[in-house]
Amino acid sequence: MRELLHRRQWLQQALGWAMLPALSLAARAQANGALPRFIAAWQNGAQQHIGQLAWTGATTASGPQLLPLQSLEVPTRAHALQQEASGAILAVARRPGDWLVRWLPGQAAQWLWIEPDRVFNGHLLASADGRHIYTTETDLADSQGLIGVRDARSLEKVAEWRTGGMDPHQLLLDSDGSLIVANGGIPTQSETGRRKLRLDHMDSSVVRLAPQDQGALQGQWKLSDPRLSLRHLAWGAQVQSGQARPGQARPGQVRPGQPRRWLGVALQAEHDEAEAKLNAPVLAVFDGASLRTVAAPQALAGYGGDIAFTGTAFAVSCPRVNGVALFAPSPSGADIQWQGLQPLAGAYALAATPPSDPPASPRLWVGGASEAFALDAAGQAAGVAPASLGAIQLDNHWLRAQGS
User: What CA–CA distance (Å, rounded) separates 162 from 396?
Assistant: First the structure.
């Protein structure tokens, strides 16, 4: 009954929130068109928001700031976001979550609440043809992972595909139209919230599904350490030709001579032993044939938050050691190697610059606990003054807004 009331209250109030004058005149006056805007989720006091943030120029006494241009209050923390061609923002609740929303500033928000026997796992993705929205979900009856296939207009579910594991998190489309999904592998129950259960039964994996064949499982890859949860994904540079390992390709994977891209996977360690967790890797890479971890010469606390590709390196945010870890392809292109750690307190949200931007522009925008900064392709400060977050507590992910 409380859950039904919770939903009803939000549906009744959503129109009012969506139509509030969320555009701050001060933020609009200070926003610098030469600096980016971001689609983000954040907390301000006790309230959770999604919307658009502007990176202002150094026009205030306190220097550059990130200020809300548009915002919508949401019932719980949001996780992944996406901006559609119309400018509308899609956002889904942090796992285990029960809401999905589409919001175009100035219009009423379109809310969807998940079925009682399912929970959202925090990520969504538009299909290649734009007709569907894919959401990662868990079936509460057996704790198994699902891809919810939803009509792109109504957001209503039209099909479900099993992911071959538990706790599916982020998902990406490959160039051949297949769907790559990271199964986090952590058993949970909705009544315990985010409490993790039976970690000795973890079963994390990367899987390839075929949307053109009702989500059929085409391949599955696991790491040798079962206590590493595979969570966030980013496509990287093309794997150099001739690097395929003989005998490791399977049906539905790569064909000999087929171009392949590195796939970076951010890891979160769930070991019982503190030392094992402290020294656990934060990055795994998949080359189309094998999945393996990438070593770092320093302890990163076994926690990779977000992941992005700068154009030359994978960046993995590591909030527990207050920095962004950088890993780049070796000179031969046959492997991925450690490059260093760029410090930032509470580093988490990462947004890569579109490839169409000039090469000299900043390649990565990083949000931390109290400020945000930009990095160039080499992972060094990009000459843009850090922006203060003020009262905003940025959440796990953000992305560059269209046209910025």
Answer: 26
Residue-by-residue DSSP string for 285-340:
EE-SS-EEE---SS--TTB---EEE-SS-EEEEEGGGTEEEEEEE-TTSSSEEEEE
Give every CB contact of residue 16 below 8 A, 6+ residues apart in sequence.
none
Q: Answer whether residue 359 shows pLDDT above 60.
A: yes
The correct answer on CATH 3.40.710.10 for the domain covering 75-222 is no
Cβ atoms of 299 and 275 closer than 8 Å: no
The C-alpha atoms of residue 361 and residue 220 are separated, in whole angstroms, by 37
Burial 52-71 (b: 16+ CB within 10 A, else e): bbbbbbeeeeeebbbbbbbb
- Edge-first strand listing for the sheet containing 314-318: 307-309, 314-318, 323-329, 336-343
> Residue 13's pLDDT is what?
52
Sign of the CA dihedral running 105, 106, 107, 109: positive
Residue 23 CB neighbour total at 10 angstroms? 15
Q: Taking the alpha carbons of 195, 316, 177, 164 in that order, is the dihedral positive or negative?
A: negative
Per-residue pLDDT reduced to its tens digit, 213-257? 999 999 999 999 999 999 999 999 888 754 444 333 343 344 444
Distance CA 50, CA 215 (A): 30
Q: How confident is the model at residue 314 (pLDDT cuts 50, 70, 90)?
A: very high
Strands (DSSP E) found in 105-227 = 110-113, 118-126, 132-139, 144-151, 157-162, 168-173, 179-183, 205-210, 216-221
Contact 353, 385 (CB under 8 A): no
Contact (CB, 8 A) for 68 and 27: yes
The pLDDT assigned to 57 comes to 73
Which residue matches tokens 């843009």?
Answer: 384
- Tokens matching residue 18: 């969506």
How high is the pLDDT of residue 59?
Answer: 54
The amino acid occupying position 79 is: H
Distance CA 184, CA 100 (A): 21
Q: Where are the domains of the chain?
A: 75-222
Greatest Cα pair distance in the chain = 62
DSSP type of residue 401: P
On average, the pLDDT of the chain sits at 86
